[in-house]
Write a structure and sequence with these properties.
Number of strands: 15
Pfam family, one: Radical_SAM
Number of domains: 2
Family: Belongs to the radical SAM superfamily. RlmN family.
CATH architecture of the largest domain: Alpha-Beta Barrel
Helix content: 25-40%
Shape: elongated
Bound molecules: iron/sulfur cluster
Radius of gyration: 22 Å
Cofactor: [4Fe-4S] cluster
Number of helices: 11
CATH superfamily of the largest domain: Aldolase class I
Enzyme class: transferase
GO molecular function, one term: methyltransferase activity
């Protein structure tokens, strides 16, 4: 599920402002330490003839104090600092635009890659919860996406490339740093409380980079986040869900969006390869693995509400049946239309009725709040700057219009 997308420079919202990145710019021959896992960094220091524990020290400087200048790493000897300066760098993706909304939502546009590179977005959404102020960062894993979900602006742009671990973790680094820029190094702390791998791209199709980035998120020498607060959201790459179960314990979300195969084949085409029965079984296996672990108590089901398409009473009934043996929480997402989107947003009443059906059956079912409207950063499909003129979209527009007509004539 993508809540962010690539935007072209010409289409930038005028409220976005160019900024210069504070990160050290260095030559390409230098090794970027930002995306390295603890194991990789330990090996790096051992190869330099240094002790392994240097890895933990440097990780804390990078990920907990947001330092990019080796000269500031005061518990590292001057000689080693000089050596590191020569051969390494700590380099997050370049921030080309940033917007901070009045409601606390923050959005960054990063340039990744050499030269003009590509642009990706990251969004931070604040909320109050039982434990206090929550700050949830929605992180991208790929530039574009190959999966072409019919309601998704990212999918319409095709796939460009996978992000590297430094480009993935760099989004979290920069979001934290944005609160600490003016804070003295010794007083800096991590501010982002939750991460969802739910931005642009299908994270399970960039498996290794996403896995090592999530390991850094959980690592006490880096972000030390609770496994319950790191969520991977997938459209349903079944074999990789099984692999994930073996490799890391994080929360799992499924971009479901349809309660039957026929509709899901249209909305989320990967369903043709891994139909619902297989997907639900994979979720059950994921929860069964280390079932007592707190991150695996339930799966979050993401369901975007598309007017007249998947929001009817029968769809709610089908969803109840589908999920009856899967511990799950359901998150209804009001669709955020982008230009030429083939769908509209379900009415508030329709969404509430849908929620009631699910809640009455005993499911925890929430409606996602739309946030950050003043910077074009609402959840769901937020960019709205990508023109979707594909033939497929046109066909869908017609189909949706026909369905709405049928509903109207049925009263
Ligand atoms: S998996 Fe589907 S919803 Fe997610 S980014 Fe790709 S096309 Fe969009």
């Amino acid at each position: 599920m993508s809540s962010v997308a690539v935007v072209s420079s010409e289409n930038m919202d005028e409220k976005q402002q160019s900024v210069s990145t504070p990160v050290v710019q260095a030559t390409h021959t230098k090794v970027n330490l930002l995306g390295m896992s603890r194991t990789e960094l330990e090996k790096f220091f051992e190869d330099l003839g240094e002790k392994k524990f240097r890895a933990g020290q440097v990780m804390k400087w990078i990920h907990q104090y947001f330092v990019t200048d080796f000269a500031e790493m005061s518990n590292i000897s001057g000689k080693l600092r000089e050596k590191l300066e020569k051969i390494c760098e700590i380099k997050a993706p370049e921030v080309v635009h940033r917007n901070y909304s009045k409601d606390g939502t923050r959005k960054w546009v990063f340039r990744v890659g050499d030269g003009e590179g590509s642009l990706v977005e990251t969004v931070l959404i604040p909320a109050e919860d039982k434990t206090g102020a929550r700050k949830t960062l929605c992180i991208s894993s790929q530039v574009g996406c190959a999966l072409d979900c019919s309601f998704c602006s990212t999918g319409k742009q095709g796939f460009q490339r996978d992000l590297t671990p430094a480009e993935i973790i760099g989004q979290l680094w920069m979001a934290n740093y944005s609160y600490m820029e003016d804070v003295p190094v010794a007083e800096r702390e991590r501010t982002v409380t939750n991460v969802v791998m739910m931005g642009m791209g299908e994270p399970l199709l960039n498996y290794d980079a996403v896995l090592s980035s999530m390991q850094l998120m959980l690592d006490d020498f880096a972000y030390g986040m609770s496994k319950r607060r790191v969520t991977l959201s997938t459209s349903g790459v079944v074999p990789k869900i099984d692999q994930l179960a073996q490799d890391i314990d994080v929360a799992l979300a499924i971009s479901l969006h349809a309660p039957n195969d026929e509709l899901r084949n249209e909305l989320v085409p990967i369903n043709k390869k891994y139909p619902l029965q297989q997907l639900i079984a994979a979720c059950q296996r994921y929860l069964a693995k280390d079932g007592n672990e707190s991150a695996r108590r339930h799966v979050t089901i993401e369901y975007v509400m598309l007017d007249g398409v998947n929001d009817q009473p029968e769809h709610a009934q089908q969803l109840l049946k589908l999920l009856k043996n899967l511990p799950s929480k359901i998150n209804l997402i009001p669709f955020n239309p982008f230009p030429h989107a083939p769908y509209g947003r379900s009415s508030r009443n329709r969404i509430i009725a849908f929620q009631k059906t699910l809640s009455d059956a005993g499911f925890v079912c929430t409606i996602r709040q739309t946030r950050g409207d003043d910077i074009d950063a609402a959840c769901g499909q937020l960019v709205g700057q990508v023109a979707d003129r594909t033939r497929r979209a046109e066909q869908w527009k017609k189909k949706v219009a026909q369905q709405q007509e049928i509903l109207r004539t049925q009263g």
